[in-house]
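We read letters as residues; the fold follows as tokens. Both lines appear below.
***
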Amino acid sequence: MVWPVFLGGAEAGTLTETREGLYRVFRADCAMTEGLHRLYLHGAHGSAALGLLRPEAGRLRLCRRFTRLEEAALPRPILSVSDREAPEAVSPAPENGGEAAPVWRALADGSLLGMQGEERFLALPAALSPGAAAAGRLRRIGGKDYLVFRL
């Protein structure tokens, strides 16, 4: 699995999760930025500190190994990775010539609930619903493809 890493609100790199023997390994690789950055994994039911990025070969990197017992304390599913303790609302760039976009909140099943004025929207991960493309509008939100439906 690979997630974008957000530092100071901007996408700065990636976090990769792999299984290596008995361990779950997380590796972050980010562009060099000023200051100290602690990475947090954000899930539907909380956040967990992953560790502190450190300078290495002109980049900011982190490698952290977890046993199965340690891994059980991590939020699942992982919805985002950032240097902030609490996740921010995911909001795409304005669409339709500057019209304000919905503000999105992550739900436990990986879908998003959006509010724009009095209108509500549901966004389902496109990878989980490939046959439903004709029923919704395909949009990129927070770096992932979603099918968006008006409720």
Observations:
- The chain is about 5% helix and 55% strand.
